Amino acid sequence: MLKLYTGGIECLSPAIGDEFIARISTNYHLPAAARSGEVLLMDSRDELIPSDFRAYMVLESNASKLQYPLPSENVFRLPDDQFFLGDGDVIRFNPQRLSLRTIYRKTSHSNSFLVTERCNNYCLMCSQPPKDIDDSYIVKQLLEAVPLISRSTNELTISGGEPTLLGDDLITLIRTIKNYLPVTGLHMLSNGRSFTDAKFAEKIAQIEHPDFMIGIPIYSDISNLHDYVVQADGAFDETIQGILNLKNFRQRVEVRVVIHKQTYERLPQLAEFLARNLLFVDQVALMGLEMTGFTRPNIEELWIDPLEYQPQLVEAVEILQRYRMKVSVYNHQLCVLDKKLWHVNVKSISDWKNEYMPECDPCTKRTECGGFFSSAKLRYSKNIVPFMPHA
To answer: Is 101 helix (H, G, I), strand (E, B) or coil?
Structure first.
């Protein structure tokens, strides 16, 4: 698991200025006009260090190898767990608190923007427990970060909390991403309830993003079971209406289903409901449970070994495919997944929190397998068995 946030930073010279957003560079010869917005990540090369970068950072293991005198201010030593930082990455850095958060990694295919921690659901298995706070500053910082992101980025994800609670600030953010990153796909995770307001759905459509999809969860074909999972009365009806409004404005929608003890039994019935009532959605994702956030205190109410629900999962996938709906299975390990589902299995866990268990070390299919969330150490299937090479 990569540490995208660290406070273990040491200041090697006076820290000047307040928190800022900047891009990482390893280019000592960057043109002078571009240096003020860049942080130079120094290494062990024997080369004169220019004096006009926004700040200077060096990994602990490289600090003693620098040959030239350090600049007079804003020089910081990072713990070696920040080894992944490189050219083109975008960070938020506070020189006074000596804290750093990586906002974007150029080499990653899993860049996600958490835009708010507020939410109008309170899901039993929420991986990002909601907070009733004013965090509008997050969007302001992201609006600074977007122009620094590589134009070759394949995809970005907007998540929360519930992004739609930002209202017009969300519209501004999506439009800014479209303008600066016109060929970057954008995926937004939402509970869909705000789109009961058709005018808000229309505002999203009017941005005319060329590659935009909204992932919306439906946890049951029975309204009160869905409402129980999300802990919000009336949420099912609002979610369905929100999807209908989005599709009315020709927006792409993915239905997402997290599988756990409360949802697995009616997976086939939910698949039939989707096929009969929401055949026009663009894809369906059937997802394994992440062992973090509210899942931990609710684990006895949620946990079921994935091997136990394979019959329901196979039936649900077969129903959706029979209706020619696009369906994928996320967050599962191949050794517990029915072989009938391997062709729809996707390696979907973000790279910064994707790990494998000790049992996986000798497995011959490790590179094809989705692996685990790092939080899975709390509890995972007892049926993890590595695929071994044939004798």
So the answer is: strand
